[in-house]
Design a protein that fits this description.
The complex is a heterodimer of chains A (580) and B (158).
Chain A: H1 5-21, E1 26-30, H2 33-37, H3 40-54, E2 59-63, E3 75-78, E4 84-87, H4 92-105, E5 113-117, H5 142-145, H6 163-168, H7 173-181, H8 184-194, H9 206-214, E6 222-227, H10 236-243, H11 245-259, E7 263-269, H12 273-288, E8 304-310, H13 319-326, E9 350-354, H14 355-367, H15 369-373, E10 376-377, E11 380-381, E12 383-390, E13 396-401, H16 406-413, E14 423-428, E15 435-437, H17 447-452, E16 461-466, H18 471-485, H19 491-508, H20 516-530, H21 534-537, H22 541-558
Parallel strand pairs in A: 1-2, 6-7, 6-9, 7-8, 12-16
Antiparallel strand pairs in A: 1-3, 3-4, 4-5, 10-11, 12-13, 14-15, 14-16
Helix pairs in contact in A: 3-4, 7-11, 7-14, 8-9, 8-11, 10-11, 10-12, 11-14, 18-19, 18-22, 19-20, 20-22
Chain B: H1 2-13, H2 22-33, H3 38-47, H4 52-61, E1 73-78, H5 81-85, H6 88-99, E2 105-106, E3 112-117, E4 129-131, E5 134-136, H7 141-150
Parallel strand pairs in B: 1-3
Antiparallel strand pairs in B: 1-4, 2-3, 4-5
Helix pairs in contact in B: 1-2, 1-3, 2-3, 3-4, 6-7
The chains are: A alpha/beta (580), B alpha+beta (158).
Bound molecules: flavin mononucleotide and FE2/S2 (inorganic) cluster.
FE2/S2 (inorganic) cluster (FES) is lined by residues 78, 80, 82-83, 119-123, 126, 128 of chain B.
Chain lengths: 580, 158
């Protein structure tokens, strides 16, 4: 028998109380992809072994990503009722010291702690955290100071495999509220009022899109959640799913309720085990507790949700190609019309949203659309969830209100470029987004402002390049990616990408000719005009944007036969094999 | 031989998720065997009421599918832009040297299979490589060589 919402909440409260203020310490270790890459598995093992050696008791939980990826492996120790103390870049040897001192003797290792957070800062943002002795407040760290966490409110705070921890932090409250006191149309209206726009790239108004689906009377309708996330430099979709999968499950349920859809898929690229395993576990738990399946929480709303995997294919993130992949075919985009809201996956009306878009929905419903609309900048409401990587001191994932200046993001929040070097350019919104020269970064986070500057805010990836980077070299890499990932269905993209790569490789080898720039422009125009999907239509962006800022560098390669930074002289590798 | 067919059959027939397709069946086989042998193409076609051509179309589209058995250990090195900007190329050069290959592929002794990956999803820890799905971030050419030596790469262990 599935519990009622009140029973679920009571259970959750009780368990949370025991974790944070019970009889033993709680140790949280970030084991999202970023944590794993930094060696978190070995740290978890060392913590466990050390606890046994000292015959000490503590609860160890593997959590997701707090956003401070540069500090991984990040170990978060909370003695009952005390503030959380964070240790950065922990090695297995330091794990032993943490247990010996902090757990066994109750003395935090002040010298090696990154900071602390208030004791009841379980989820969401806290402002009431006291300082533990002389430990700095982690919320004053540049990467956290200006954050406003909505979609990431639980990331790094809760165990993604434990639905009760999500529930204890307000989880499934919005769903309960909707099922007991709102019609689907009222939920949709709140999303409309919020001004929420898609975070998957095109920034289309979510409420408008939902209304297309709500308008269809078909008995079988689908909600698809897109976690293909093939953009190199973007990891926030995977980050949300492996940190707080229930937020996405709840968002999908609310989307289904608002649009009258009863079936859904969460679509993830195969190979990323962490996000896949955690999402599957979340779906199974939600079924167990009656939050998925028939008559959810005793209402007459039913919804079935499944995780679907794709093979390696960037284009399978495009909405119609994604439907092909779910149906089990080659991920090649379909012609439109008909649009997905009329004929989508398995021929049924379908709505597709990005992970981040759906992750906002529970808070929008719980707090009201007007609250969300009050955050942000002009038509870009809410927050931007950015992935900071490349030549930056603080790499990681941050959630910032729209409207913050990009220069503040780069120089303050991300701590600037390592080694005192100059920033040369950034690459935003995935490979198709192109590059922005460092002198053009005086922009605020806003979809339109970025577009007017010739860039895409899109899914929020920001990759920084320092002065040692060659613009031609990076352009070649971006086009090599686009060529490798072209699905091959339409020839302007398939051949255009290959031709562009051929020309760029020639320029990189200092064998380019004076006609090559015009040749690339010509290819680019044809791709833009003739390609079926955004991959080919936007595929010239990396070249055109690089030419806009760094024409001189291309000239140097072509006419002076030299690479000013020398990057092009070092050997480079990219896959030769492509789709057959 | 029968063992192989049986493993394929089990992988294809015992998929836990409700929606079973050609792609999901192939992913299940890949999980089980690490590659898609011709026997699996037959089985997947039969199970999904499709033709062998339909199945080959999917196998040949997604580059994660291989049609020959992989080496004992699978090494992936990221060449995505985040990694490229902070030193992926010297790492790849070191890896190629350590495993003795001119480009991605399998070592002749069947120990290692090397693939370039467009993004391993840990860009904040660039440059990134993985060995048997285990991610290693902020890797230097030196560390890459050492890690691979543990897996029997290089002439010294022959
Ligand atoms: C080549 C290509 C790749 C795409 N990849 C993704 C992706 O990985 N994730 C995603 O959410 N959207 C991706 N999109 C955008 C989707 O087509 C779609 O617009 C989006 O998922 C809609 O969700 P949203 O309205 O919430 O933004 C891609 C588009 C193109 C053209
Ligand atoms: S670009 Fe290398 S891990 Fe993402």
């Amino acid at each position: 028998m599935a519990p009622t919402f009140q029973e679920l909440q009571a259970q959750a409260e009780q368990r949370w109380q025991a974790l944070t203020a019970g009889d033993r310490p709680w140790i949280r270790v970030g084991t999202a992809l970023c944590g794993q890459a930094a060696g978190a598995d070995a740290v978890v093992q060392a913590l466990q072994e050390s606890l046994e050696r000292h015959n000490a008791a503590a609860q160890i939980s593997q959590v997701g990503c707090l956003g401070l990826c540069f500090a991984e492996p990040l170990v978060d120790v909370q003695l009952p009722g005390q503030p959380r103390v964070f240790y950065a870049n922990v090695t297995p040897e330091q794990a032993e010291e943490i247990i010996a001192s902090h757990i066994v003797q109750g003395i935090p290792l002040a010298g090696s702690a990154l900071g602390c957070l208030g004791s009841d800062d379980g989820g969401g943002d806290s402002s009431d955290n006291g300082e533990t002795g002389d430990l700095p407040d982690l919320n004053r760290h540049p990467m956290r100071a200006r954050e406003q966490r909505i979609a990431l409110r639980n990331a790094g705070n809760i165990d993604p495999l434990d639905i009760y921890q999500y529930a204890a932090n307000g989880g499934y409250r919005a769903l309960h509220q909707a099922l007991t006191g709102m019609t689907g149309a009222e939920v949709l209206e709140q999303v409309n009022i919020s001004g929420l726009r898609g975070r998957g790239g095109a920034a289309f108004a979510t409420g408008t899109k939902w209304r297309f689906l709500a308008g269809s009377q078909a008995p079988v309708k689908y909600i698809l959640c897109n976690c293909e996330e093939g953009d190199p430099g973007a990891f926030n979709d995977k980050g949300i799913l492996e940190s707080d999968p229930h937020t996405v499950v709840e968002g999908i349920l609310l989307a289904g309720y608002a649009t009258g859809a009863n079936y859904g898929y969460i679509f993830i690229r195969s190979g990323h085990d962490g996000p896949i395993d955690r999402t599957r576990a979340a779906v199974a738990q939600a079924y167990d507790l009656g939050l998925l399946g028939r008559n959810i929480l005793g209402s007459d709303f039913s919804f079935d949700l499944e995780v679907a995997l794709t093979g390696d294919s960037y284009v399978s993130g495009e909405e119609t190609a994604l439907m092909e992949a779910i149906e089990g075919s080659r991920a090649m985009p379909r012609y439109r019309p008909p649009f997905p809201a009329q004929v989508g996956v398995f021929g049924q009306p379908t709505n597709i949203n990005n992970v981040k878009t759906l992750a906002y929905v529970p808070e929008i419903v719980a707090r009201g659309g007007a609250w969300f609309a009050g955050i942000g900048h002009e038509r870009s409401t809410g927050t931007a969830i950015l992935c900071l990587s490349g030549a930056l001191n603080y790499t990681g994932m941050v959630e910032l209100p729209m409207g913050i200046n990009l220069q503040d993001v780069l120089y303050e929040i991300a701590g600037g470029v390592p080694g005192g070097k100059e920033l040369k350019f950034i690459q935003t919104g995935g490979p198709l987004g192109g590059v922005l020269g460092a002198d053009a970064t005086d922009l605020v986070l806003d979809f339109e402002v970025f577009r007017n500057a010739g860039a895409i805010l899109g899914s929020g990836g920001i990759i920084a390049a320092d002065e040692d980077t060659c613009a031609v070299d990076l352009t070649r890499v971006l086009i090599a990616f686009c060529q490798y990932e072209s699905c091959g269905k339409c020839f302007p993209c398939r051949m255009g990408m290959s031709h562009l790569l051929e020309v760029l490789e020639r320029i990189s080898r200092l064998e380019g000719g004076p006609e090559d720039l015009a040749l690339m422009r010509n290819i680019g125009e044809n791709m833009q005009a003739g390609s079926l999907c955004g991959h080919g239509q936007l595929g010239f962006n990396p070249v055109s944007s690089a030419l806009r800022f760094f024409a001189g560098e291309f000239e140097a390669h072509i006419t002076e036969r030299r690479c000013p930074t020398g990057s092009c002289q070092t050997p480079w590798f990219s896959p030769r094999l492509s789709r057959r | 031989m029968d063992g192989l067919k049986e493993r394929i059959r089990k992988a294809v027939h015992n998929q836990p998720q409700p929606t079973v397709t050609i792609l999901s069946s192939l992913l299940a086989v890949e999980d089980e065997l690490g590659y898609i042998p011709p026997e699996a193409v037959d089985e997947v076609a039969g199970f999904n009421r499709a033709t062998i051509n339909d199945v080959w179309a999917v196998v040949s589209f997604y580059p994660n599918f291989r049609t020959t058995p992989p080496g004992q250990h699978r090494v992936e090195v990221c060449w995505g832009p985040s990694c490229h900007l902070v030193g992926a190329m010297p790492v790849i050069a070191a890896v190629l040297e350590a495993v003795g290959l001119p480009a991605e592929g399998d070592t002749p002794d069947g120990r290692l299979s090397l693939r370039y990956n467009t993004c391993l999803g840990a860009c904040a820890q660039a440059p990134v490589m993985s060995i048997d799905h285990h991610l290693i971030g902020r890797i230097t050419p030196e560390q890459a060589r050492n890690r691979l030596a543990d897996y029997g790469a290089g002439p010294a262990t022959e």
